[in-house]
């Protein structure tokens, strides 16, 4: 992927974040996954009054793609449009659960964080992750 393609995917993640259901945290997150054949699937976080049932944007996007038959992914972008700049990069990175999902479903994808120029691999995010 080139920088322009990464920016496009990050923009798709930002757009997805605008659809988030985050009445409790007020922390809207969007994700966009890019399949090997060029399809983009968006996802957003969906919260619940029973907090443990909240769904992250990354897992929402991956689930949507999987439901459509996608199995290979080249990139995943994440956008935390409400993140305070003081949080820095770590406040905008995928949580541990999403890293485990990425390892299972998109192990070769590169991870893009909207607003940051660095590109990460899934194995950088989750070294020695659980695999069967
Ligand atoms: Zn997560």
CATH class: Alpha Beta
CATH architecture: 3-Layer(aba) Sandwich
List low-confidence stretches. Answer: none
Count of domain modules: 1
Spell the H/E element sequence: HEEHEHEEH
Radius of gyration, taken over Cα atoms and rounded to an integer in Å:
14 Å
Average predicted confidence as pLDDT: 97
Number of helices: 4
Write structural notes for this entry:
Helix content is 30%, strand content 20%. With 132 residues, it is an alpha+beta fold. The chain has a single domain, classed as Cytidine Deaminase, domain 2 (3-Layer(aba) Sandwich), CATH 3.40.140.10. Strands 2-1-3-4-5 form a 5-stranded mixed beta sheet. Helix 3 links the parallel strand 3 (73-80) and strand 4. It binds zinc ion.
Q: What's the SSE blueprint?
A:
Elements (H helix, E strand, L loop, with lengths): L2 H15 L11 E7 L4 E5 L12 H11 L5 E8 L15 H10 L4 E4 L5 E3 H4 L7
Parallel strand pairs: 3-4
Antiparallel strand pairs: 1-2, 1-3, 4-5
Zinc ion (ZN) binds next to helix 3.
């Amino acid at each position: 992927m080139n920088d322009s393609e990464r920016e496009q995917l990050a923009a798709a993640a930002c757009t997805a974040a605008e659809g988030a259901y985050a009445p409790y945290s007020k922390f809207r997150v969007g994700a966009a996954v890019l399949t090997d054949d060029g399809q983009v699937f968006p996802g957003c976080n969906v919260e619940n009054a029973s907090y443990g049932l909240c769904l992250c944007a990354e897992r929402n996007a991956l689930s949507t793609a999987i439901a459509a038959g996608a199995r290979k992914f080249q990139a995943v972008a994440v956008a935390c449009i409400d993140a305070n700049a003081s949080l820095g990069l770590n406040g905008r990175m995928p949580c541990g659960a999403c890293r485990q999902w990425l390892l299972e479903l998109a192990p070769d994808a590169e991870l893009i964080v909207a607003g940051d120029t660095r590109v990460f691999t899934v194995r950088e995010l989750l070294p020695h992750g659980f695999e069967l």
